[in-house]
Amino acid sequence: MSAHPGLAYPCLDTPRERAVGYDAVMETELAPARTGGRLVELGPGLALPGFTLTLSPNEEAFGEEEEADFVYKVLSGAVRTTRLLSDGRRQIGAFYLPGDVFGLEFGPVHRFSAEAVTQTDVAIVRRSAVERAAERDPAIARQLWTLASHELADLQDHMLLLGRKNASERVASFLLKLSRRAHSRVIELPMSRCDMADHLGLTLETVSRTMSQMARSHAIDLPNARRVVVHDLEALAA
């Protein structure tokens, strides 16, 4: 079934195919109300026409080496970017939570795949529209620079984590980051421990063992597999 009932294009299977099909419709005389169009706020003062898609768990928003035609923003749920190594191992580059923008690329194609962790709603804006807006308005260009700079800073932090921190430090850093992001000591984990392991460069067993050790030391509590309650921020930071 089409993602947008009533639109005059055939059944499309992947989110990117639906996006391209939808984009073609948007360029006709059809009113935005018919297609569910909306303004997508990628950042302060950066709101552009776009649309929304709902992704099922593990469904791709885009694949590695696909054309980078769109920019995405998470509205609800969570997204992970992944790359499979030649031996089948998976590396998760980043997690994106509500409010995060992803899919910004310097080149013409995506270097990682992007998948929904849980059922996820994403807003999508055509990349060419973003680029045109940046050319017209220096303030929008600065907003894009800020978005790209924040992502670069996160990648640099992650490189340090993978290169110099031990297992306990990696897990603690990850939990601290989520706690700060949520502005809460109660962390609801959308990702599995297997996802955490593939992001932190650890095994599933090491992540589970490390979190259990933290719970025994009363730095955290684990009410269930997807909830972490941080009792001692200083202990995690140490």
Based on CA atoms alone, the radius of gyration comes out at: 19 Å
Domain tally? 2
Number of helices: 8
Order of helices and strands: HHEEEEEEEEEHHHEHHEEH
Quantity of strands, as a count: 12
Structural class: alpha+beta
CATH architecture of the largest domain: Sandwich
Silhouette? globular
- Give the overall average pLDDT: 85
Strand order of the largest sheet: 1-2-9-4-7
Could you describe the largest sheet, including whether it forms a barrel? 5 strands, antiparallel
Percent strand equals 25-35%
Helix percentage: 25-40%
N- and C-termini, Cα separation = 52 Å
CATH topology of the largest domain: Jelly Rolls
Q: State the low-pLDDT regions, or none.
A: 1-12, 24-35
CATH class of the largest domain: Mainly Beta
CATH superfamily of the largest domain: Jelly Rolls
Please tell me about this protein's structure.
The protein has 238 residues and is α+β, with helices and mostly antiparallel strands. 28% of the residues are buried. The chain has helices at residues 15-26, 32-35, 127-136, 138-164, 167-182, 193-200, 204-216, 233-237; strands at 38-43, 46-55, 60-62, 70-76, 79-84, 90-96, 101-102, 113-116, 120-126, 186-188, 220-224, 227-230. The longest helix has 27 residues, at 138-164. The termini are far apart. It is globular, with a radius of gyration of 19 Å. Helix 3 (127-136) crosses helix 4 (138-164) and helix 6 packs across helix 7 (204-216). It has eight helices and twelve strands. The protein has two domains: 15-150, Jelly Rolls (Sandwich), CATH 2.60.120; 165-237, Arc Repressor Mutant, subunit A (Orthogonal Bundle), CATH 1.10.10.
